[in-house]
Amino acid sequence: MLDVGLFVSMDVQRFIDEAVEEIRREVQGKAIIGLSGGVDSSAAAVLAHRALGDRLVPVYVDSGLMRQFESERIEQLFRHFGLVRVNAGDRFLSALSGVTDPEAKRKIVGETFIRVFEEEAARVGADFLIQGTIYPDRIESEGGIKAHHNVGGLPLRMEFKGIVEPMRDLYKDEVRQVARALDLPVEISERMPYPGPGLAVRIVGEITKEKLDVVRTANAIVEEEVGSYQPWQAFAAVVGKGTGVKGDNRIYGWIVAVRSVTSRDAMTADVMELPWPVLRKISSRISGEIPGVARVVYDITPKPPGTIEFE
Ligand code: XMP
Question: How many angstroms separate the alpha carbon of residue 25 from the centre of ligand 1?
């Protein structure tokens, strides 16, 4: 039995049929889809594949801002769709070099994604871009809260004849219903949301390779330890530097903040009250397994006033 949507109950099958119709109607010739492996873009990719078959080229951009082993897993899962993987980690890192402002980071990530998509589209002869943008992405961007990289972060000038966003009016729980009805694997349909700019918004301030390595490992540890509690999102961020003692030495190392929240739609969120032993284990694993970390803190701020991500 399908869940009932939280806001308005939806007819999932009807949505699927109409979305497939819409994609067929809007797209002439070939289209590419930016597939990140999250539930939104994965569901959009299946809809688009139903609509277009071989006229769809799914493109996975490894921005270097992805989580541990994520790129390899996505490649495995979507190989049968003819997925094209573009390794653009160095390009993103150099575009982001020296940038500290969160909105500037988002815009740069958005712009770089689009440029990579444009290049791929030109290579395969596609004029259309399909995206997995959902309703809260638009609301937060339009409301001036954060320019989500796939909405407000988009450059004004784009080389596409059209952008199709079949899920633009859905909330996350509705997207999950669609994903289940499309038979996506559970690891995708139930996956925690992950922001498009990825680890870039989990590093406060400038992004460097060293901070990326720290935050990637810390995220993997948090997901491993918290996953079974089914948070809306659980992750780690590098938020600054502080003094600590490791072995016999005083160090000036990274401060890693751990965040785990419950939410219905990401518009508001509550702090998850994780058992103390879980938090202790996370703390000792992060500081023990990552050499440059001096301190681990748990963020106890709900949204509002904090946003879910640190940037
Ligand atoms: P915030 O941090 O605004 O996040 O409370 C709300 C939800 O959106 C995700 N998020 C993003 N997703 N591009 C995205 O695709 C972005 O730029 C972005 N910023 C935040 C965040 O992970 C949470 O689920």
Answer: 30
In whole angstroms, what is the distance from residue 296 CA to residue 268 CA? 24
User: Can you give the pLDDT at residue 265?
Assistant: 83
Ligand 1 — pocket residues by CB below 6 A? 106, 137, 140, 146, 148-150, 193, 195-197, 201, 233, 266, 303, 307-309
Confidence at residue 150, expressed as pLDDT on a 0 to 100 scale: 67
Predicted confidence (pLDDT) per residue in 36-49, tens digit:
999 999 999 999 99
The stretches in the chain having pLDDT less than 50 are 1-5
Taking the centre of ligand 1 as the mean of its atom positions, its distance from the CA of residue 193, in whole angstroms, is 8
CA 77 – CA 167 distance, rounded (Å): 21
